Description:
Elements: H1 2-21, E1 25-30, E2 35-38, H2 40-46, H3 50-53, H4 68-79, E3 84-91, E4 97-108, E5 114-123, H5 125-139, H6 149-165
Amino acid sequence: DITEERQARDQIDKLSKVLAQIADIVSITDKLGKITYVNAAYCLQSGYTREELIGNNSNILQSGMHDDAFYRELWTTILNGNVYRNTIMNRKKNGDLYFEKKTISPLKDKRGAIVGFVSTGKDVTEEEMLHQEIERIATIDQLTGIFNRHKFEELFALEAERSRRFSQPLSLILI
């Protein structure tokens, strides 16, 4: 019966169009992180063309702002078959930084073996910059440009705990 085959093909075509046209950033990689698919939103956000991305490693967008432990946690999570969610700072082709709220999910074959990963994301740069500005306003005195009393008390509590933990003296100088 060709009807079922045609319906399956129509469903695949529909899903392909959705993936290509969705406003969210989407990429698919193999198990080693080599990019095999990117949608138009990915290209628009990153500034790279599809041809520049396909075949390259997904670390092409690394900003240099995350340490090795950050990426170790990411890879450990997804290689164990779990979904990874976090906000990541990436770098566009032109060098500009942007924040992406990212979800990376393992793609598995019929036996359950990981064969690749699908990554979806949203640009949250404006929200992240606003959050950083709110944090700055909440901790910095506008007149002096130094930490306010609340931030001082927070840092002092951390240092006092560190002093107790390592049995080291703590000095405080007030000017």
